[in-house]
Amino acid sequence: VCTPSRAAIMSGRYPFRLGIQNSVFSALRNNSLPLDLKILPQHMKELGYATHMVGKWHLGFCRWEMTPTYRGFDSFYGMYNGHAHYFNHTGHFKGYDLVFNEQPLWTIDILESHASVKDDTPLFIFLSYQAVHGPLEVPEHYVTDFCAHVTDPTRRLHCAMTAAMDEGIGNITTTLQQLGYTDNLLIAFTSDNGGPVKLGSSNWPLRGSKITLWEGGTRSVSFLHSKTLLKGSYTWDGLMHAVDWYPTLVRAAGDKKEIPGINGMDLWREIRKNRRSKRTEFVYNIDDVKNTAALRWKGWKIIHNKPGSPDGWYNPPAGVTAPPEPKGKYPEYMLFDLESDPAEMHDLGEVKVDLRKTLAKKLRGYEAEMVPSVQGRKIEAGKPKNWGGAWTPGWC
């Protein structure tokens, strides 16, 4: 889900080693990404980059020190919380959640302003769309222009929101071309989790939904684009975790030094050369509150206890009239061969008993390194009614 995945991307560390593994940061809690960590924008700043963020933060904000401009970004235009209404920017407790960095600042504004300064300062922008995310809201013309053929009303709205996001990304890439940035540009596109099936997403044929440890909740599609840094078009199918983005992007930016204390691996050479990933295992998560965990080792996945629900196969494409149904009961450990069974239909835990025991022991080793989940303290003083109707830092 949002907060743990964003913490992994920003810090290069597994969320269970930060105490952020259980759920998202809620609006009135005093949680934050630990302030003693150097995170991605701070590292890019050290490399000489101008750094800007637009969009969703969701990593803590009750003190100014927790907010983006104190964590390495030169500017921030966006929202502190996890979601808000798209048209009026209000969310929890009807609080207004759209923050200006002293003046309105949009991604295209940042690009044009940077281009007007005739120097060689490189630019790093972290653009974090709320879309496609609940609530399902979108201007009507995206529905009629792009998605009228979709019969399911929830899927239709989901489709239209995707079209709106696609248009926004297109506007940005057009501006990059007009400003002459594309000859020395790297675009990284990714997501923080699988789709929520109750809001019209389809992870088919993968199992599960957002908020679960099934592949449908954790596997996402990413791409990198560069005219100069990457040669040709190809599909890289190497093993990669969200924690790998930090060291990989820093290496692409020119820093060859290893980053101490992180779990992420620099996979830039492997991606650039289309070579086998040097990563052979990763931890999906270890949640001490829900008492569940999962580990990937090569092509195998072991799951401890129930990995969450919805736990079936949802929103299949046309022609699939009877998707399989989950059994509903789960042993202590399940084992799946993701190379032959990416949809996680066949638990091999009782067939590959020795392998199951070996991977269960490996997973328990990671569990010994877990930081207990930090739930944070609820502070009523943070309610928007105490701050002129808006969400703002300064209350913890």
TrEMBL record:
Pfam families recorded: Sulfatase
Cofactors demanded by this protein: Ca(2+)
One term of GO molecular function: sulfuric ester hydrolase activity
Segments forming domain Sulfatase N-terminal: 1-254
Gene3D superfamilies hit by this protein: 3.30.1120.10, Alkaline Phosphatase, subunit A (3.40.720.10)
Keyword Calcium: yes
Family matches, as PROSITE patterns: SULFATASE_2
Keyword terms of this UniProt record: Calcium, Glycoprotein, Hydrolase, Metal-binding
Family classification: Belongs to the sulfatase family.
Cited PANTHER family: ARYLSULFATASE (PTHR10342), RE14504P (PTHR10342:SF273)
Identification of the protein by name: Sulfatase N-terminal domain-containing protein
Native organism: Batillaria attramentaria
